[in-house]
Structure formats: C-alpha cells, structure tokens
Write a structure and sequence with these properties.
CATH topology of the largest domain: Rossmann fold
Number of helices: 13
CATH class of the largest domain: Alpha Beta
Low-confidence stretches: none
Shape: globular
Structural class: alpha/beta
CATH architecture of the largest domain: 3-Layer(aba) Sandwich
Mean pLDDT: 94
Strand order of the largest sheet: 3-2-1-4-5-6-7
Length: 365
Amino acid sequence: MNRQAPMVLLHVFSTFRVGGPQMRFAALANHFGSKYRHIIVAMDNAFDARSRLDPGLDVQFLPVAVRKGEMLANRNLFRRLLRELKPDLLVTYNWGSIEWGIANWPALLRHVHIEDGFGPEEASGQLLRRVLTRRLVLAHTTMVMPSRTLERIARDIWKLSPARLCYIPNGIDCDRFVAPDIVPYPLTGEGPVIGTVAALRKEKNLPRLLEAFALVRRERPCRLVIAGDGPVREQLDADVARLKLAGDVTFTGAIAETERVYAALDIFALSSGTEQMPLSVIEAMAAGLPVASTDVGDVRVMLAKENGPFLTAKDTQALAGSLQALLADPTLRKSVGKANQRVAREKFTFQTMARAYNALFRGAL
C-alpha cells in the first residue's frame, strides 16, 4: 500500500530566533512528526531556534537573499521560489513576512497568515500604511490569531472578512510545568523570587520591570530572575548597574527548560508595552504562579478572575504596587496561583491547539 506523501508547508518568519511564534511552531512540528514536511525561511536568515526541533523531522532551512527596501525585487524572487518549491501551503507569520503574501498575490497557492502581535512601532496604534497593506494583501487569506484583541483589530481596523478569521488560542503541555522531577533553577540570595521569561526585546519593556523591582526591593528582601536573551541585554545590564541591583538580579540567558525557571519563582511578572496572548503567561499559570502584569492584549481574559487585581496600567509605580501586594501575602500568592493553574488546564491545553492547527493546515478550518 502506498503511503500518502506528507504535506509540504513553507513557513516564513521575520526571524527564526527563539520567540513565542517560533516555540509554538517547534512544539507543533515535533508533535505532528512525519505528517508534514517543513521548509523554513527567516527574513534575517537567523535560524537559532532550529535546536528546538526534533532531529528526525523533515525540515529544510532556506536562506534567502532579501533586499531591504526593494519590494519589487523581493516580490519577484519570492514568487519565483514559490513556483519552484511548489509547497502545498504558504504559512506566514506577522508583519515581517508580509512581502511573501504580496508575492503570492494573485494567489499561486493556499495561504495562511498567523498574526501574534506587534512590535514597539505599533504598540500605541496601527500604522496606516500597514493597515492598508494588510487589508489588500490578506483579503483572501485565512487569518489566524491567538487573541480576541487581534481578532477585533483584524475585523474592525483591517476590515477583513469575519469568515476569513480563525481564533486559535495558544496552548501548552500543562503537565510539563508540574512534573515531580523538575529541578528548580539554582539561585543565590534571600527572599521571594520574582521572575519573567521573555525574549530580551524593546517591546517587552524590561527596564520597567527592573525599575519596579528596584522600588519593591527597598521595602523587603526579594530577588529577580530574567530568563531569555536578545538585543537589549547590554542595556539591561546597564540598568541593573544604574539601579544598584547587582546581586539581586539573575540573567539566565536563553534556556530551553523554562519549567525550571517557573519552579524557582514565587511571582511571575510581565512588563510589556504590547502583547496579545503570551505563552509565558500560560506557562506561569500552568506552574501555579500568580501574575503581576501590565494590562495588555488578552492577558486579563487569560488569567483567573482572582488575578485581576494585579493587572496594572503601563506604569512602573502601578506594577511595583502589584508586586508588593503579592510579596506581602504568601497565602494570597498561593490561592491566586492555584486559580490560574485551574484555568490553564481548562482552556489552554496543547492538544486542543494541535487539533485546531492540524485542521487548519489541511484546509478543514
């Protein structure tokens, strides 16, 4: 009996460095195994996240000579590649891949566009040029969004047809974050531990977290862990020195076993200026942690209602206030964390997400 050949998916990312969309893709690809063959393009030709993929997968990493600012030349190159590669499906991720949507228009092949959120340039509002481009290029594309906030933006601002919009919330393996054999990340010092897991990029606004931590640290002994790597690391080191926090702040760098970080925390903190449905918040919930966060994207509706009082405006003092309230009451921390854990297991499981993406890729959504 002839076995059906796997579908070929061409994935286009702005970068394939470690980040939320890349980690979601890796988890799905590892789960689907031989069902799909993957071709991965990174517009910056950075493929650091390839280490998160199982070595047995059929994956091709395709370097592409992107010409910055030369849309017509890029369009011609990408369209030629689409004809030569003949994938069954084009999957683009976020604004940084939009030129592949342009190259595919008028349609050479079925196209799915996954939108996870915005960079700092769109944190406070939509840019008209990008709105109009999305409205035109994505009009006949299946759009996937992990957040209701993005769904409303796509419908009301980009004016895309609701029939083309597909809401698939992020999901994780919740059991991974409560496994009995987790070895917490080793830390020195005394006091409760505040922490975050994030790519060290401008939109995460980690200087806000450092400044809030500095305010809290004046009142009581505590520690801060920042897990992740990225382009603003040197700036953060300078902020730690300026705020005289050396010895109280630990940078772990990029770490694959993030469950070890969550196991070492008492409070998870998110200081972002823009988010939609951050995987790190779901992971913290699954680990049974309370969350002190800026009120961005879908974070409020993701968390248990008991966690609501600890969401704040995009303000250092407000974030410090939430941290202080949680630090002052260990019983409150535990009860809020348990409520978050229950919600994560009810709403944000990996199996639910994987079933939806499998149906999406096969054209059943």
